[in-house]
Design brief:
The chain is mostly helical. It contains 5 helices and 4 strands. Helix 4 (148-158) crosses helix 5.
Length: 185
């Protein structure tokens, strides 16, 4: 019995050290990121928004982000846990494709970017791909009475390159992109 207690205490001590080192590495690594591991808060038109959390935009004048399985509720983050062979999931994605094509009729024969019809694991992804933004450019140009070239210029200026030029794809934060659209006029 005494041997088991001593072994358990040793294992506990070793695990505390290992986990402590791991947490130190994660915390230290977060401090080299652009936001230093903190939320990015944007004040716009007297309101406070978190750029790190997906927002819902329904108007034709704005870019739409990824769908959310949690209705953009940051307190209840989570995915649907339905796989690509689940009938209900496939029907949901098909409805999203149909809605997206209805909202963007001039893109009817264009491949739909996957992130515009599937939610992320958290349901709160704030970013879309460049292709996802370009897919919506004609609709927004028409709704805002601007040229498509002006919308593409906003997309180009708001495109975030991969971290250190290596990690991850190019992306656009939907909130920042829509604020940039508002600042055009």
């Amino acid at each position: 019995m005494k041997n088991h207690i001593v072994s358990a205490l040793r294992l506990t001590l070793v695990m505390l050290i290992v986990v402590g080192i791991y947490l130190g590495i994660v915390y230290g690594g977060s401090k080299i990121l652009p936001t230093q591991g903190n939320a990015e808060i944007i004040n716009h038109k007297g309101q406070k928004f978190y750029a790190n959390i997906g927002q819902e935009f329904k108007s034709d004048q704005y870019f739409h982000g990824r769908p959310s399985t949690v209705n953009y509720n940051a307190a209840g983050s989570g995915g649907s846990n339905k796989g690509p062979s689940n009938e209900e999931y496939l029907q949901t994605v098909q409805k999203r494709i149909d809605t997206l094509r209805m909202q963007n009729p001039e893109m009817a024969n264009t491949k739909v970017p996957v992130e515009l019809v599937t939610s992320s694991g958290s349901g709160l992804d704030p970013d879309i791909s460049r292709e996802g933004a370009l897919y919506q450019a004609k609709r927004i140009a028409k709704a805002r009475h601007l040229s498509e070239e002006q919308i593409k210029n906003v997309i180009n200026t708001q495109t975030e390159k991969p971290f250190l030029g290596l990690f991850g794809p190019s992306k656009l934060n939907v909130l920042k992109l829509n604020i940039a659209l508002d600042q055009l006029k």
